[in-house]
Amino acid sequence: MDICNQCEEQTKKSSSGKPHEFLVKVDESRIFKGKKPRGFEEQDYKCLTCSAKFTQSTNKNDLAWTLWRG
Ligand SMILES: [Zn+2]
Q1: Which one of 6, 38, 55, 58 has the fewest CB atoms closer than 10 angstroms to its CB?
Q2: What is the dihedral of CA 19, 21, 27, 32, to 10 degrees?
Q3: How far, in Å, from the CA of 43 to the mean position of ligand 1?
């Protein structure tokens, strides 16, 4: 599956990076509660251009932006 240039760039962004303009939120964010600093949130996104799916996570042990290759 080919992804668009904006999604390619998105994979390199940090957790503070914003989703690119054609990434739209899918569902609500998932909040994982834990004792600080272990709580974190995940949010799924889908690209309107190439249909790539991303998950943004604030979990320090995960990639900030995970691309799900189909
Ligand atoms: Zn894309």
Answers
A1: 38
A2: 10
A3: 16
